[in-house]
Amino acid sequence: MKNNYKSQIKKSLSKLGIEPQEVLSDTYRSENLNNIDKKYDIFIPNEFKEFLLIYNEVFFDNEVRFKPIESSPWTTTEGTQYFEGFYGLSGQDNISEQIECYENQIPNCLIPIGECPAGNLICLGVKEDTFGKIYFWDHENELQAKLMVGKDIVTNDINLYWDNLYLVSESFLDFLNKLEICQNTSVDQKIDVDDVELFLDDDLLDD
After folding, report:
1. How far apart are the first and last CA of the chain?
2. What is the pLDDT of residue 91?
3. Please, are residues 50 and 11 in contact by the beta-carbon 8 Å criterion?
4. Pick from 172, 159, 174, 178: which is nearest to 44 by CA?
5. pTM value?
6. Taking CA atoms, which of 112, 134, 161, 190 is between 20 and 30 Å from 49?
7. Domains in the chain, number
8. Hey, how many other C-beta atoms are within 10 angstroms of the C-beta on 155?
9. Domain, as residue range, for 12
10. 204 part of a folded domain
């Protein structure tokens, strides 16, 4: 099954222009993954573990999008959202750093594994009913922001707050299969003319 994961992962990333990276030894990566599981009392699904053993941090040069199962405020009129890339086991934005950074901002049954534009996240289920599933985390509707501005909320327990989480796919492999390079970004989003400011040259106004 692991070899099957590997071939599917490579195929999905290859179509996005990403090739395997030989920057960390397999031993280092395996030990690092085991340490993450133990340190945070989670279990990273094998599909994502295999991904991290083949690749390190992956961010795309091209605009990449996906169609989530559940729409969010960031979903375009065509039903797509944009994705920037995955965190790795090393580097400044590694998985461990991201887990600690968002420890009190997302439920502890999820970990951040990648990012979308505007500070939003792609999260992976590592416990209970969420295990293996992929979620989109909307930072503009997060619990901490609501608490800071004094909004009325049903709960202040981050593990019970899911108002800013949206199901993207049932598994990590499904998520990879959803990713595609944008061929024409100009038609992906509906532009509201009320949100567009038009600046005219003074000479044109005089005419």
Report:
1. 71
2. 79
3. no
4. 172
5. 0.85
6. 161
7. 1
8. 11
9. 2-186
10. no
Please, are residues 80 and 20 in contact by the beta-carbon 8 Å criterion? no
Per-residue tokens: 200: 């005219």
Q: Does the pLDDT of residue 28 top 90, yes or no?
A: no
What's 145's domain CATH number? 3.40.1580.10
Instruction: Tell me the CA distances in angstroms from 119 to 77, 115, 130, 188, 195, one per residue in order.
Output: 21, 7, 22, 20, 21
pLDDT band for position 154 (50/70/90)? confident
Structure tokens at 194: 């009320």
Give the rounded distance of the alpha carbon of 88 from its chain centre: 13
The answer to whether the CB of 141 falls within 8 A of the CB of 163 is: yes
Sheet holding 110-116, edge to edge: 165-169, 134-137, 120-125, 110-116, 81-86, 58-66, 180-181
What is the average pLDDT across 2-26? 84
Tell me the two tokens of residue 19.
Answer: 């090739």
Q: pLDDT at residue 200 above 70?
A: no
Rounded CA separation 66/81 (Å): 5
